[in-house]
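dude i think i finally got it to work??
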Amino acid sequence: MAPDGADHDLMAAHLAEFDAMVATALADEGGSWDRLFALRAAVVTGQRDGAATAARLSGLLIGAEIAHIRRSLDGVVSIIGDPSLAALYARGCDSAGINHTILDAEAVTIAGLGSAARRLADIPTGT
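look at this
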């Protein structure tokens, strides 16, 4: 399960750890999965604390996701979600040189539901 916004807010103290792992994943084109086990081992053996490791893990996963999609991008990426998590994706996009915009998740959802309702209202009911 993905961490919630509060977890990402706590990670703010470890943004350098996050940025380092984004850079690692981008440089490795997202193939850094062996690092997942190294991160877990570092926590289990007491070499790293949980908060720093959470930041590194988020950086690795977000960086790998961005590395995977960046070759197929041909425009601005829209980031929709929890503001804290969206800010981390924006940091990752900045590191990869990807243009992006953050959209308010609630506003986008309401607009989408409104559009769907208008389309449904135009469908004849057939009698």
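The radius of gyration is 19 Å.
im so relieved honestly
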